[in-house]
Design a protein that fits this description.
Order of helices and strands of chain B: EEEEEEEEE
Radius of gyration of chain B: 13 Å
Largest interface: A-B, 24 and 26 residues
Largest sheet of chain A: 7 strands, mixed
Number of strands of chain B: 9
Number of helices of chain A: 0
Shape of chain A: globular
Oligomer: heterodimer
Radius of gyration of chain A: 13 Å
Shape of chain B: globular
Strand content of chain B: 35-45%
Largest sheet of chain B: 6 strands, mixed
Structural class of chain A: mainly beta
Distance between the termini of chain A: 40 Å
Helix content of chain B: under 10%
């Protein structure tokens, strides 16, 4: 069965960076785009960007351009999202989500989420 | 401010039907049949309920249905059950150069 398992909660200081991992199993990792979506406490969902695990190509939401880097390691079927220059308003749960088609923006499987807390 | 507009809350009694709207523009909802709906219970990851406007993934109850007219998509839940109480989010592919996917602000469904 398809599973996306994310790394554990993180606490970071303002200005630091955080790297969240998402290990995929149960399907061919390179066959599906992986997206990252975040959710601030009590707020809605926000799309951050996506990576093509096959090519490594990425697309980022303009809001995060220059601060976010999405990578992957195909040898261990794992995607990564690194966010730098953290601010307090980056405190959120970060999800990875698999997209069954490249264009539609549908996410059929989600990771369990990783809480990132930014606090001095 | 979210790119897609949803009502903040809706409510209904068990057995009733409710509809949640999701309004966008011709660059997203109105321009493509790529609207999805997600259900999220507190502390849990979102779950895909509807994709490509009106398709249900395997395992999702047929009490959930989706439709679209112009720039507005809708999710209808019939025969409301207590377990349907959750937050619901719509999303759409967008042709915006700054985004690939846009979400609605979410709707809290309360089953009375």
């Amino acid at each position: 069965q398809v599973q996306l398992v994310q790394s554990g909660a993180e606490v970071k200081k303002p200005g630091a960076s955080v790297k969240v991992s998402c290990k995929a199993s149960g399907y061919t990792f390179t066959g599906y785009y992986m997206h990252w979506v975040r959710q601030a406490p009590g707020q809605g969902l926000e799309w951050m960007g996506r990576i093509n695990p096959n090519s490594g190509g990425t697309n980022y939401a303009q809001k995060f351009q220059g601060r976010v880097t999405m990578t992957r390691d195909t040898s261990i079927s794992t995607a990564y999202m690194e966010l730098s220059r953290l601010r307090s308003d980056d405190t959120a749960v970060y999800y990875c989500a698999r997209a069954p088609t490249p264009v539609a923006g549908t996410f059929d499987y989600w990771g369990q989420g990783t809480l990132v807390t930014v606090s001095s | 401010q979210s790119a897609l507009t949803q009502p903040a809350s809706v409510s209904g009694s068990p057995g009733q039907s409710i509809t949640i709207s999701c309004t966008g523009t011709s660059s997203d909802v109105g321009g493509y049949n790529y609207v999805s709906w997600y259900q999220q219970h507190p502390g849990k990851a979102p779950k895909l309920m509807i994709y490509e406007v009106s398709n249900r993934p395997s395992g999702v109850s047929n009490r959930f249905s989706g439709s679209k007219s112009g720039n507005t998509a809708s999710l209808t839940i019939s025969g409301l059950q207590a377990e349907d109480e959750a937050d619901y989010y719509c999303s759409s592919y967008t042709s915006s150069s700054t985004l690939n996917v846009v979400f609605g602000g979410g709707t809290k469904l309360t089953v009375l």
